[in-house]
Write a structure and sequence with these properties.
The chain is mainly α and 93 residues long. The chain has one domain (2-78): Winged helix-like DNA-binding domain superfamily/Winged helix DNA-binding domain (Arc Repressor Mutant, subunit A, Orthogonal Bundle), CATH 1.10.10.10. 65% of the residues lie in helices and 0% in strands. The chain contains four helices and no strands. Helix 1 (8-18) packs across helix 3 (34-48) and helix 2 packs across helix 3.
């Protein structure tokens, strides 16, 4: 999310959107009004170039997570260690 220059609050709202929370749920979690959540979302949409929550989720997944998933698939096929936040999934944690 830092790649889009989102403020901390915009990042908070985006994380909650990515987790599937509704506007009302986000407002309750962040102790703000639903209108404030909508204003943050509008700013997030402008900064990321999307027009809906669905577009936002898709953009974040396909631009930032899917490439890592594909890389791990290639690594697994090649018998190389997987990237998983510093842990190798082939060895017990």
């Amino acid at each position: 999310m830092a790649a889009y220059s989102l403020t901390q609050r915009e990042q908070d709202v985006t994380r909650l959107v990515l987790q599937g929370n509704s506007t009302a749920e986000i407002a309750e979690r962040l102790v703000v009004s639903a209108d404030t959540v909508q204003q943050h979302l509008k700013s997030v949409f402008d900064k990321t170039g999307v027009h809906s929550r669905r577009d936002l989720v898709g953009k974040v997944f396909f631009n930032h997570y899917e490439p890592h998933v594909r890389d791990n698939e290639r690594r697994a096929i090649a018998g190389r260690p997987l990237h998983s936040g510093g842990l190798d999934r082939r060895t017990p944690a």
